[in-house]
Amino acid sequence: MTSTPTDHAKKLAKRLREDLATAGIEIPHSLALELIAHQLGTRDWNVLAALASRAGAAAAPGISPGVPVLRVMSVAQALPFYLDYLGFSLDWEHRFEPGLPLYVQVSRSAVVLHLSEHHGDGAPNSVVWIPVRDVAALHKELLARPNAPVRPGIDPDAPEGPTLQVIDPYGNILRFAQPPSAH
């Protein structure tokens, strides 16, 4: 069981009472709680408890967007597609030791993807849905790339909004979709 901010304040109040008792000064537990609340910068114990409760609720798991892991057989062959064609940046790469599979992170704007050579990480032919503000602008950008490996079209009637679908060299599908709220 995890400790809450109020649990910590109660432990401080108990220690304060014990230390004062050792010095021959007896105070009730409620006064110790009030003194700790003052020391922590609040008006009284009720305010401290309310703030701690609110902070505890705000500090609840805080789940962030997931990061898809796409299986590639060769990062060296996949990176030109992601960096040169799609305009992603290489953020970092990791290899446990020379000769072992490579694991990298690429990103563009708020999109973060992991590409992995590790057997068991992801599966070829995975699909990643990526919301974009202006799918037509992205389409125009990709078509303007010299030596573009693919020349995708836009599906204007896709259920998630106009969608541009591209397939990486290992069959992973990236669906760049413009949600209806972004039209």
Estimate the helix proportion, in percent: 25-40%
CATH homologous superfamily title of the largest domain? 2,3-Dihydroxybiphenyl 1,2-Dioxygenase, domain 1
SS strand fraction: 15-25%
Please tell me the total number of domains. Answer: 2
* Strand-pairing-aware structural class: alpha/beta
- Principal-axis shape: elongated
Could you tell me the mean pLDDT? 88
Which descriptors apply to this entry?
alpha/beta; 5 helices; elongated; 183 residues; 2,3-Dihydroxybiphenyl 1,2-Dioxygenase, domain 1; 34% helix; 4-stranded mixed β-sheet; single chain; 2 domains
Describe this structure as you would to a colleague:
The chain is built from 5 helices and 8 strands. Helices cover 34% and strands 21% of the residues. The chain folds into 2 domains: 54 residues; 114 residues, Roll (2,3-Dihydroxybiphenyl 1,2-Dioxygenase, domain 1). The mean pLDDT is 88. The strands form 2 sheets. It has a 4-stranded mixed β-sheet, covered by helices on one side. The chain has a 4-stranded mixed β-sheet with strand order 5-8-7-6, with helices on one face. The chain is α/β, with parallel strands linked by helices and 183 residues long. The chain is elongated.
